[in-house]
Design goal:
Strand content: under 5%
Distance between the termini: 48 Å
Protein name: CCDB1 protein
GO cellular component, one term: cytoplasm
Structural class: mainly alpha
Number of strands: 0
CATH architecture of the largest domain: Up-down Bundle
CATH class of the largest domain: Mainly Alpha
Number of helices: 11
Oligomer: single chain
Main location: cytoplasm
Order of helices and strands: HHHHHHHHHHH
Helix content: over 70%
Subcellular location: Cytoplasm; Nucleus
Number of domains: 2
InterPro entries: GCIP-like (IPR026907), GCIP-like_N (IPR049317), GCIP_C (IPR049318)
Largest sheet: none
């Protein structure tokens, strides 16, 4: 499941039928996990015949989950497939863990590990109800973009909070005696640092605005009626996934002691990702002429802030 690729089925693919079947197989797997766990929750042990029946039922449930995942053809979009694959993998791994726990636990009583593993399978099986079921790949891409936006928003807020004038960025995590003299430059931002970091904050805010605008454009104009449209949505989701790690790397390099060259490098990486997102959005069907204004504005904002970062760090090269 983790590495295999579903093929294109011979029969016409019906998304509602797929979701029904996937939901049913996840539900059956959850029930089999409960049966298996209860059978080994107290003495006496199940008979050899009962064990054989239990293991057969578990295996059949897992094979059914994997089989239904393989119904989902590539043409439905890689973003949707990745979400379904991750949910399916979690169910299979959860059942493996439960089985291992039962094999390695004493049978005198229900162990805490067994309870946690059983709950883990239930939780994994419930994930199917959270999967985006809207218009094919479009709903999956909307969900992926919204998740990225949430992470970037948190990173921007955290850095804004740390940069409040006069605040010690390490005040909440380090005691005075650990650092000795509080005037240590390693724990504070200089005025030059703050000037550089304000441009980095500009890039981080541009990341948030970029994801917000792309998400709104996909919701307003995104379609999944043709292979080309599906592929364009997937491209947007793939490149947007690179924004959050790039924002995190930049944020980490902004904490004192600031190495201006490391900051410049991480800022350039983020700027490059943002330019790619904007370029892909601009050339896709989600950006009709009415959306071109914000693409142009954000491209300018990224360039402006990156040029300021370059100016502040020029003397370090």
């Amino acid at each position: 499941v983790a590495e295999g690729e579903p093929g294109e089925g011979r029969e016409p693919f019906e998304l509602p039928r797929f979701w029904d079947a996937l939901g049913q197989t996840f539900q059956v797997t959850s029930q089999e996990a409960t049966k298996l766990s209860l059978a080994f929750s107290r003495p006496p042990l199940p008979s050899a015949e009962d064990c054989r029946k239990l293991s057969e039922d578990v295996q059949n449930a897992i094979l059914a989950v994997a089989t239904v995942y393989y119904w989902l053809p590539k043409g439905q979009g890689t973003t949707l497939r990745k979400m379904v694959r991750d949910a399916t993998t979690e169910v299979v791994e959860g059942m493996i863990q439960l089985t291992d726990t039962i094999l390695n636990s004493p049978v005198e009583s229900l162990s805490q590990e067994q309870l946690i593993s059983t709950g883990g399978v239930w939780e994994a099986c419930e994930q199917v109800s959270n999967l985006p079921r809207g218009e094919y790949n479009r709903a999956a891409v909307v969900s992926a973009l919204a998740a990225c936006l949430g992470v970037v928003k948190d990173a921007v807020e955290e850095m804004e909070h740390a940069l409040v004038e006069g605040q010690d960025p390490y005040g909440d995590i380090m005691e005075d005696e650990e650092l000795g003299f509080r005037g240590n430059r390693d724990t504070y931002w200089s005025e030059a640092d703050r000037q550089l970091l304000s441009s980095c904050m500009g890039l981080m805010k541009a990341s948030k605005a970029c994801l917000k605008k792309v998400l709104a454009a996909v919701k307003a104009h995104g379609k999944a009626d043709s292979p080309e449209q599906i592929a364009q949505l997937d491209d947007l989701a793939d490149i947007a996934n690179e924004i959050s790690p790039s924002v995190d790397e930049l944020a980490l390099s902004m904490y004192p002691p600031v190495n201006p060259l490391a900051v410049r490098l991480n800022a350039a990486k983020l700027a490059s990702v943002l330019k790619k997102v904007l370029e892909i959005a601009k050339t896709s069907h989600v950006c009709p002429p009415s959306e071109e204004g914000w693409v142009q504005f954000l491209t300018g904002a990224v360039d402006h802030n990156m040029n300021k970062v370059k100016n502040f760090t020029q003397g370090q090269l």
